[in-house]
Write a structure and sequence with these properties.
726 residues; alpha/beta; TIM Barrel; Malate Synthase G, Chain: A, Domain 4; 3 domains; eight-stranded parallel barrel; binds acetyl coenzyme *A; binds ligand LL5AMS7Z; binds magnesium ion
Length: 726
């Protein structure tokens, strides 16, 4: 039973209260009594509008549902657009503007590169993510399918030198592209040295050469005569050629190269939202505690890996000498952004005088900013933002009024925490249809604090399905990626960013690579994000960050954005193409396959969420490809099933049968996990199975198709069952 402290008119969970008073406030210059007074005042001033905004979402959805029902069989795109304008779903466009954000770190403004996302509930992963600023290229290649297992190059228990040779050759191919030598390949180098402040490469044929562009060599580690690392720079990104003739790999390489260290995750989103499970005060405090550890630099985690005990902490900066002997350093850690939750959910960590929970997004805004104040005051071991900014990612906002609300709230938080105006920066997730259609208006509302826009295409797909639930049966999930609305949405996002002056100032970001084990495919496809004008894109793991970083060595983003600037295409009409099938002709087999796939994804993810509190999982799809599942992918699968059910593409019985059959498949996939409770032992008793059922059968009535309300309720049920058994 949660204990509360009564403060002014609010009840605050004792755990949260003590955490804030004992661990967070000291060192921030803020006093407990005043803080809690301001806290209540701030929340109280924003609750009514938060509620109104949610009511407006509901009202618009009802109007859209009614319109589609009335237009069955006579859909006309122009009428549809006029209707959306009339109800304020499409806003009127205001005059041109450019963003004016100040104090943006170089990582956000200038260094195009990968953006890693990590669940904050998992300290081990969060530390790993922060440290993923630098990654071993040899490890990234060796462990992934980029290097084929053919010709004896398979991954074995021990190091396989045949595979190792392929890795080294491939890595040197990448070096040849990013930092080429004059008339030679890095594969031909016998020794790297520094001669007259320049990198010199002695070749196997007895000749000596240097870099094609000598200015790419910017520093070294060790002695100038005996360097252990050569630091190179290309497209604002660094990489190190590391030398060690005694290392097991280095000694097999004629130039003593033991590895190539790649600057990888330039920025990282530390996530309090869709990849975590945080359903009560206890969970929220755990999340905030980890964030505090990251901001103060003292987070550590001890665990066993490969039979060894490992303690992980944040990496220090990397130090070098430049060719003239001056010392300098580069950050050893990724620049961290914090993703808050959106406007929808409430939390029982704080209860008002009427017994009502407060909006969770407001709590996140205050707590994550307060904690990050330690970074601004340089209270920690390291500094995250050298420009004195706090980077908050705000997800799931619908339209410009909701963005304006965030802006006003952030100003209020700045006042209460004694921070300069616009210290709190915002990354706007473009992941709801009403935001995509009005993106420039949304950006304008935060033009003095915006640091990114990002196409969260997963949530966006869920919203596409839900918004047009009444329009008809949706195309198959796999076809969404190639559909017109999605292509236009991606292009329109880049256009809005460029038109409002993001170039060299802020990030135009693209979405997640959701197949963490398919790195060869990622290398083939994700370069497309850069060619489309993005200067960052999401990756699910440090390995993916190291590999995706290579793309930024290949493409000159500045040049691409320059070409795209001034593009006059308008995308609204294309974005309004609803992805429905007029006369569905799917075979029974197609339908069943679609249902099986969605049901397997839903159950595989939900069972770990609800029963074990794991917010992001790798779940195999119907073809046994491991997919990154989070709440946004769940939103798609559950909305898709709900949509087909709603339009009679499948029956209720068929969905029931599919869920039960797939529960057995998921149980089998998890049979090695001692903490797993099988769903198929008793479907009615399995909270996870019931959650999955609700997500589908009650999917059409969920607010904007979100999964949070059902997941939270069911997770709380499991937590209280566990508590009663104790
Ligand atoms: C729509 C959206 O909102 S997308 C954004 C939200 N989604 C996410 O944040 C997903 C982020 N990724 C993840 O959580 C994970 O990669 C998963 C759940 C997909 C896969 O996790 P696992 O099955 O444990 O991965 P796997 O076994 O391949 O790798 C584990 C190792 O990789 C590391 N790792 C994996 N993902 C990450 C990550 N995102 N950040 C840091 N380290 C990571 C782990 O620390 C671990 O290494 P360690 O043993 O040295 O600690
Ligand atoms: O948050 C990301 C998404 O794709 O949704
Ligand atoms: Mg999202």
């Amino acid at each position: 039973m949660e204990k509360f402290v009564t403060l002014n008119n609010y009840q605050v969970s004792q755990e949260l209260y003590e955490f804030v008073n004992q661990d967070v406030l000291p060192g921030t210059g803020l006093k407990s009594d005043q803080f809690w007074k301001d806290f209540e005042y701030t929340i109280r001033s924003f609750v009514p509008e938060n509620e109104q905004l949610l009511t407006q979402r509901k009202k618009l959805q009802e109007q859209i549902d009614t319109w589609h029902k009335a237009s069955k069989g006579s859909f006309n795109i122009n009428q549809y657009k006029t209707f959306l304008e009339d109800i304020g779903y499409i806003e009127s466009q205001t005059e041109d503007f450019t963003i004016n954000t100040k104090n943006i770190d170089e990582e956000m403004a200038l260094q195009a590169g990968p953006q890693l996302v990590v669940p904050l509930t998992n300290a081990r992963y969060a530390l790993n993510a922060a440290n993923a600023r630098w990654g071993s290229l040899y490890d990234a290649l060796y462990g992934t399918n980029i290097i084929s297992e053919e010709d004896g190059a398979d991954i074995q228990n021990q190091y396989n030198p045949v595979r190792g040779d392929k890795v080294i050759a491939t890595a040197k191919d990448y070096l040849d592209r990013a930092v080429p030598l004059k008339d030679a390949s890095h594969k031909d180098v016998d020794a790297y040295t520094i001669v007259n402040g320049q990198l010199s490469a002695a070749l196997s044929n007895g000749e000596t050469t240097g870099l094609n562009d000598p200015s790419q060599f910017i520093g070294f580690q060790g002695d100038a005569d005996n360097a252990t690392a050569f630091l190179l720079k290309n497209n604002h990104l660094h990489l190190e050629i590391q030398i060690d003739y005694d290392d097991p790999i280095g000694k097999t390489d004629k130039a003593g190269v033991k590895d190539i260290l790649v600057e990888s995750a330039i920025t990282t989103i530390i996530d309090c939202e869709d990849s975590v499970t945080a359903v009560d005060a206890e969970d929220k405090v755990q999340v905030y505690r980890n964030w505090l550890g990251l901001m103060k630099g003292d987070l550590s985690e001890t665990f066993t890996k490969d039979g060894k005990t490992v303690t992980r902490t944040l990496n220090p900066d990397r130090t070098y000498q430049d060719p003239h002997g001056s010392h300098f350093s580069l950050s050893g850690r990724s620049l961290m952004l914090i993703r808050n939750v959106g406007h929808l959910m409430t939390t029982d960590a704080v209860i008002d005088e009427n017994g009502k929970e407060i909006p969770e997004g407001l709590l996140d805004g205050i707590m994550t900013s307060l904690i990050a104040k330690h970074d601004l005051l340089q209270n920690g071991t390291y500094q995250n933002s050298s420009e004195g900014s706090i980077y908050i990612v705000k997800p799931k906002m619908h339209g410009s009024k909701e963005v304006a609300f965030t802006n006003e709230f952030f100003s209020k938080v700045e006042d209460m925490l004694d921070l300069d105006r616009h210290t709190l920066k915002v990354g706007v997730m473009d992941e709801e249809r009403r935001t995509s259609l009005n993106l420039e208006n949304c950006i304008r509302e935060v033009k003095d604090r915006v640091v990114f826009i990002n196409t969260g295409f997963l949530d966006r797909t869920g919203d596409e399905i839900h918004t047009s639930m009444e329009a008809g049966p949706m195309i198959r999930k796999k076809d969404m990626k190639s559909s017109q609305w999605l292509d236009s949405y991606e292009k329109s996002n880049v256009k809005a960013g460029l038109d409002s002056g993001f170039q060299n100032r802020a990030q135009i970001g693209k979405g997640m690579w959701a197949m963490p084990d398919l790195m060869k495919e990622m290398m083939e496809q994700k370069i497309g994000h850069l060619k489309a004008g993005a200067n960052t894109a999401w990756v699910p793991s440090p390995t993916a960050a190291t590999l995706h970083a290579l793309h930024y060595h290949q493409v000159d983003i500045g040049g691409v954005q320059e070409q795209l600037k001034g593009e006059t295409d308008h995308y609204v009409d294309k974005m309004l193409q609803i992805p429905i099938v007029e006369n569905p002709a799917w075979s029974n087999e197609d339908i069943q396959q679609e249902l099986d796939n969605n049901a397997q994804g839903i159950l595989g993810y939900v069972v770990r969420w609800v029963e074990q509190g794991v917010g992001s999982s790798k779940v195999p799809d119907i073809n046994d490809v491991a997919l990154m599942e989070d709440r946004a992918t769940l939103r798609i699968s559950s909305q898709h099933m709900a949509n087909w059910l709603h339009h009679g593409i499948c029956s209720k019985d068929q969905v029931e049968e599919t869920l039960k059959r797939m529960a057995k498949v998921v149980d089998k996939q998890n049979e090695g996990d001692p903490n797993y409770r099988a769903m198929s032992d008793n479907y009615d008793q399995s909270v996870a199975f019931q959650a999955a059922r609700d997500l589908v059968f009650k999917g059409a009535e969920q607010p904007n198709g979100y999964t949070e309300p059902i997941l939270h309720r069911r997770r709380q049920e499991v937590k209280s069952l566990i508590a009663t058994k104790k």
